[in-house]
């Protein structure tokens, strides 16, 4: 299989390595952006890495929350199972709250905390998409393009205007949503009952209307 590396008796799951590498690269990005805009690179990057670790731990061990009886009967299940999609959502939610709370002193302005977190999250998301190459190598170029698009989008906040102005924040969100929707369509990963897709579509539409209204005021 392409997604595992066998080292003697040890089996390493390649997607996990990619996620760890992505988290470290995102941590480095938070350090650079934090230093540029707030002179707080070290503390902000530490908080980002901690929030990522909190998310991962909750995702992994939330299996006990959703299947308590199974864990009581066989605690070793915690080693082999995770909380699945529900655990992932819970982990992300707690990680986001953790970061926003822990960085409140370094970045008093709540919107700027959200932008920095979003930038790191988009970079992390973009890099981790290369895991799809392991399973669909024939269209590897699509996932390289996808990773490049979202990584570039995340780094636009290096320019302070993109970081602090409301209209720029709206447009960055628009471009993320448009990119997400486009790559969903290109990879034939759209279904009529996909609630996430339609929520993203409606949100993108609302942001476009907001952008147009803001432009008309000027």
UniProtKB/TrEMBL annotation:
Membrane-spanning segments: 12-32, 52-71, 77-101, 110-127, 139-158, 192-212
Swiss-Prot/TrEMBL keywords: Membrane, Transmembrane, Transmembrane helix
Top-level taxon of the source organism: Bacteria
Protein name, as recorded: Uncharacterized protein
């Amino acid at each position: 299989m392409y997604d595992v590396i066998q080292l003697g008796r040890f089996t390493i799951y390649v997607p996990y390595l990619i996620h760890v590498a992505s988290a470290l690269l995102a941590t480095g990005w938070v350090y650079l952006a934090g230093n540029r805009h707030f002179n707080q690179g070290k503390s902000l990057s530490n908080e980002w890495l901690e929030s990522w670790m909190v998310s991962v731990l909750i995702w992994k061990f939330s299996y006990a929350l959703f299947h308590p009886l199974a864990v009581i009967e066989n605690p070793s299940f915690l080693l082999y199972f995770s909380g699945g999609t529900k655990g992932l959502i819970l982990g992300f939610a707690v990680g986001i709250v953790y970061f926003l709370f822990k960085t409140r002193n370094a970045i008093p302005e709540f919107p700027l905390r959200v932008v920095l977190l979003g930038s790191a999250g988009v970079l992390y998301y973009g890099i981790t998409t290369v895991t799809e190459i392991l399973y669909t190598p024939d269209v590897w170029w699509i996932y390289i393009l996808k990773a490049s698009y979202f990584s570039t989008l995340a780094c636009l906040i290096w320019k302070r205007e993109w970081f602090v102005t409301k209209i720029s924040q709206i447009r960055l969100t628009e471009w993320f949503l448009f990119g997400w929707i486009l790559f969903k369509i290109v990879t034939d990963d759209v279904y009529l009952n996909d609630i996430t897709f339609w929520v993203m579509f409606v949100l993108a539409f609302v942001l476009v209307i907001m952008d147009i209204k803001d432009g008309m005021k000027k």
